Amino acid sequence: MTQTTATDETATSQSEHIAQLDRSHVFHSWSAQAQISPLPVAGAEGSYFWDYSGRRYLDFSSQLVNVNIGHQHPKLIAAIQEQAARLATIAPSFANDARSEAARLIAELAPGDLNKVFFTNGGAEANENALRMARLHTGRHKVLAAYRSYHGSTAGAITATGDPRRWGSEPAISGVVHYWGPYQYRSPFHAESEEQECERALAHLRDTLMVEGAHTVAAIILEPVVGTNGILVPPENYLAGVRAICDEFGIMLIADEVMAGFGRCGEWFAVDRWNVTPDLITFAKGVNSGYLPLGGVIISAKIASTFDNVPYPGGLTYSGHPLACASAVASINIFKEEKIVENARTLGTDVIGPLLKQVADRHPSVGEVRGLGVFWALELVTDRETRQPLVPFNASGESAAAMTKFTAECKRRGLWPFVHFNRTHVVPPCTITAEDARQGIEMLDEALFVAD
Ligand code: PLP
């Protein structure tokens, strides 16, 4: 492994210098600026990254659940270099080979008649444009979005978000109404089975539409498998039920696949698992593993045709940037050559899922294990009977101490975990080996003793 092994003073002082500049000049996302001290990272490869002292971490977070292909894939880097040498930038109004090919490949992967791609720089912009398209196509203005969802931090996307990250931005855009999606472990509907949860969630959605006026609703936006709010895998018939409701009332279904897509769920798109075809799919993250900023909206023929003779009132200077698109082309080809989607699916069923269930058997603090592919969560509780979360909603200080300690214990062992409220998500690259997954889960298992 070609990692930095320097442990000398130069490396330490370089690391301190970077940290110092960061503290002085970088304004960080979602953070109280005085309270963070990000780790300076010297390099990465595959499922690992390391600091300037050469200390390695197994990346069980895939950074922000986006490095699906693993770090520093040589073919992906070569493709970016090749494109940069040939044509580093060109405005969206021109055509270029990288953009056309990326759009063709993505459209080919998408279900049904979703065959045009509008490129953005990331997930929030993708959702922003999907909402705009749905509104313009239907001529309606309301949007239904789920509680316990995250759709990004631009005005429309953060308004659609159904978690506390929205609060600081309110009021943002008008016309967004939230509803409850299924979450059987903490059922908003007091359901006792998956079937009941599904039935009641769909009935609740119908009721919400009735009181809002279905004819005023342009779109329902949802994460097919909810990501940062807990890896909530929907009941078997839920997405098909939502699709049917949308069809009945002429509402556009937007699947936000920013986190769930491109292999994360062991499918190209999470909706494939349930054979559901949305009207719009938004993607980002895994499409090129974040080697360059890229996202987009995959648009059904029906919606795209709205703009055949009427201009689409939206655009971005970097829409379909050749470097980002070249990285997407390379990434999709690598996914196919290395059977990465299949790897993610098998890891979930044969390795990660079974091992996490054994972890749950050993630790009273684990209330539930859920997930699929390389997209798993352990929900931690103080008491399995009452399901009292180990860390209360909006926890801080003392009450968050258990999770802070757990995180520190993971890092001490060389595991970089993804921790959110009372959960740890197991979301390594889709390319992780079974052996690395096993070792990571062992470290997580040891660290969990602090929570029991
Ligand atoms: N949608 C989902 C489901 C996400 O998980 C995220 C980011 O985590 C976004 C949208 C926003 O994407 P971005 O940060 O690229 O704007």
From TrEMBL:
Q: Could you tell me the keywords of this UniProt record?
A: Pyridoxal phosphate
Q: Does the keyword Cell inner membrane apply?
A: no
Reading the lineage from the top rank, the first entry is Bacteria
Which cofactors? pyridoxal 5'-phosphate
Q: Name one GO cellular component term.
A: cytosol
> Where do the TM regions start and end?
none
Q: Which GO terms describe its molecular function?
A: pyridoxal phosphate binding; transaminase activity
The record's family statement is:
Belongs to the class-III pyridoxal-phosphate-dependent aminotransferase family.
Name by which UniProt lists this protein: Taurine---2-oxoglutarate transaminase
Q: Which organism is it from?
A: Arthrobacter subterraneus
